[in-house]
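Q: Hand in one record:
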Amino acid sequence: MARWDPDAHGRLLAAALDLFAEQGYEQTTTAQIAQRAGLTRTTLFRLFKDKREILFQGQGALIDAAVEGIRDAPEEALPVEVLKAGITAMARVHSVGQQEVGKRLMRLLVSSPELQERAAFKRSSITEAIEDQLSARLGDARLAGILADVGVRSYYAAYEAWTTLSSDDSLIDLILNELSGYRAVLRSDQWS
């Protein structure tokens, strides 16, 4: 594979996932990843600050999609509908082909405290971005915080199910199902 072949991001991700599975996250070097991807270490470091970031390269796209979905929700939409617009926009970032990548990533996360820490940071960053956008849109920081927490919790539970279960449900369907479950709990008399 020539260094100038397209999709350096995707090639680095595939190489990293393969090498991490073969020899473990800690034992894999950036030089090995770059070589497997047919790139130089300089190119790898131009695109990512370290090997961990290769796995989390989609964070910015998820945040951008959520913020845009919230911003573009109809003016008359109820707060939960605004949230749905943001969370389902995040789901549209994922293609069906990414299910297998997600499966592999979930297995890696279990095996590495360093990756678990980075995953927690990613989740926190997404939640904060959604909360900020909801707060600006709704004018109620407390409501925005609750909605962001429930929305991100629903997204991650659905994503885990989407990547690990044998289901024909789309990621969006799984997210909406999770959101419905949380709405039912919040409406129940358990809050009295």
